[in-house]
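CO-FOLDING WORKSHEET

Operator: S.A.
Ligand of interest: zinc ion
Run index: 109
Mode: holo prediction, single chain
Checklist:
[x] sequence pasted
[x] SMILES validated
[ ] output reviewed
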Amino acid sequence: MAVINCPQCNKKISDKAKSCQYCELDLVNVDEDKLASIKKVNIINKSQRIMTFSFIAMLIFCGGFLYFYWQNVQPGTVEYYASVSAIIVGFFMYITTRIQLILLKRRNK
Ligand SMILES: [Zn+2]
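OUTPUT RECEIVED:
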């Protein structure tokens, strides 16, 4: 008995199983077309997750940025470190999600 990854939820299952124990995908009647459509849905879901993450990153970045200017934050205060780290964290989170999205698209061409 070998362990394979479920084509739909990607969890580890037995290759002898008739259906996935996690997402209940029917593994007996799965064909090329079904696999292709599952793969497509997985990619869409994944890129949507990354997009949500990148949106949150933008919010953190803009939030820190706007707070920094509107509140006229003085260096050395807690607000200063909070807004500067929000800008930095938001920026790097955003870059990371952009890279992930590019890699995802390239991998699934
Ligand atoms: Zn599954």
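REVIEW:
The longest helix spans residues 32-70.
Residues 32-107 form one domain.
[x] output reviewed
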